[in-house]
Amino acid sequence: MKLFGSAILLFMPAMGLSAQGIRDSVELEPVVVTASHTPKTLKDAPVVTRLITLHDIKIVDATNIQDMLTQEIPGLEFGFAMTQETSLNMSGFGGNAVLFLLDGERLSGETMDNTDYSRLNLDNVGRIEIVKGASSALYGSNAVGGVVNIISRENLEPWTANANTRYNTFGNEWRNGASFSFNTEKWNSQTSFQHTKIDPVDLPKAHTSEEIAIELMKKAQGLPYDESVLSDDSNISRLFGQKTYNIKERLTFRATDRLTLIGRGGYFFRTSERDTYDYHFHAYSGGLKSRYAWDAGRHLELSYAYDQYDKANFLPDGTRTHDHDYSNQQHVAHALYSHSFGKNNLILGADYMHDYLTTYQFLDNASHAQDNIDGYAQFDWNITDRLNVVGSIRYDYFSASARKAFTERLAVVYKIPWMTLRVNYASGFRAPTLKEMYMHFDMGNMGYMIIGNPDLEPEKSHNFNLAVERTNRIRNSGFLDGRYNFTLMGYCNIFDKRITTIEGPEYNGMESALYWNEEGITVWGIDASLGHIWDCGASFKLNYSWMKETGNVYYSDFYQPRSHSLTWRIGYEHRFSRLYALDAALSGRCQGKPQSGRTDVDQGYTIWKLMLQHHLWRGIRLNTAIDNLFNYKPKSYYYSSPLTTGTSFNIGLSVDLDQLL
Fold this sequence. Notes:
Elements: H1 19-27, E1 31-32, E2 40-41, E3 50-52, H2 54-60, H3 65-72, E4 76-80, E5 86-90, E6 93-94, E7 98-102, E8 125-132, H4 136-139, E9 146-152, E10 159-168, E11 173-183, E12 187-198, E13 201-202, H5 209-220, H6 227-230, E14 238-239, E15 241-254, E16 259-273, E17 278-295, E18 298-314, E19 326-341, E20 344-359, E21 367-382, E22 387-398, E23 403-416, E24 419-430, H7 434-438, E25 440-442, E26 448-451, E27 459-474, E28 482-496, E29 498-503, E30 511-518, E31 521-534, E32 538-551, E33 564-577, E34 580-591, E35 605-615, E36 620-627, E37 648-656, H8 657-660
């Protein structure tokens, strides 16, 4: 969702903030790429794009993408799946229908149908772009419900070095990080490291044993009693502790004025400390990209990317529970050609992906692979200064299932002096994964088989949306001087051939669940945003989301979508002296009751957070925050409860060594 244009794109000078810096920043037009594959200013993007800027990332001081999106995006909620792996719901779509990209590149592997979001830390991240709705015409499979693109920052200073640390009282969480960069005429290098550690957290009982005993006694005596005390159904009593290590390198070589080469590599490790074993996660990534520009209107991009994600169980004595628990490897070759014809632009692209998966969950510990080949085209037609039409078409082929998919998108942008109107249609698809086609294992050794289905068809979606946007600069009006933005978008997602599980045939005397295509659901929704930034340094933004599902909807403990959600932030920035500036924000999120109408879970909640960023002498920043300001506590802890036991505090220190020295 686009939020008051560039009003939140705040570039902070080395010594801190200034009112003049704020005024300058709101006049800039940030450039986004996710919605069109080519750079466009945010106000010209063909579909509504929500931009999380560098300033947003710094003031929130989030550890990873999950922390960031939770506070910024309404209609999006993270919860738990089995074994306490993170599960995402965004506007009625699960994590396997929302494509997460890192600098436009896919990630391999999954945990309970979701990306391992802890891989996506925010060190050296410059911005995050979110496009809701089907985007498969540009990005292929998994972009059924939307795309989240995390884009790295490229420092332009001769060199930078940063060391940072943060402590949170919830789970005694520590985060330590460091980054270094250098920039010359030919070379630009970005290196970052982050380590996190959080202790196990025992969740309090909603009601003590004495309270339960009293209500039981009342019930036995026929007296009025509190049923909510007796029906406390907390199904999570302890949050597992975990540790992560994440290192990334991005190296750019400007060979000539026309040719640029970019190499990258990374390693990630996470251990989740379970009650009877530890779960280890490893990820390895690397890639090489070349960009060649004949002139300002013709560009060619070629790239190769490799990503591997492994999982393994270890018993307390260090013994692995299986020879090979899970290893997913992806090789992706990519080509993109862009050609401008005056104000119009044509892009032609193609990808080849080899996807390999081996796991004990396949019959006879087998391995499976499939190849995905695609080609796509997009024409960006600027008919007049006011009217822009963007059309895209894509063809995909998957070897394992021998399935084909055609996807399209048509977006129209029309500008009048006081408003921008966007109309958009897009189709999306998600090809069945190797796991869904070939899985064959006893879930949890409980005598219940999960059986894959190689005859699955791709999931499909059709997205229609209409958005209006109003942005204006107010001058010479006293208190209101500044810039405001209002965006309203209505959408309809028709989701068909949904891949789910149904009751399967009996297998060796055991019940089973079989992967199957079912009739889909229709999701209706409204997204609205309102923001204003004053020349004095104050700012305000409010985001609201409403959604409703109809059709073959299935609710479970892991899937509790909410009809209404709201996020907001009130901010103030001011330089008090040469040595001190303050960036303050009071933010909150409100989640309505689950659509399932269940009465045995919380019926919604509101959580506030106060953040203070103190800019001190020469690049020293002290971050302090009070989370859950009003000490909200769930009545019971279940899979989609907010992970809080009440008010928590965090304090962090970030030092830019290049400025200090």
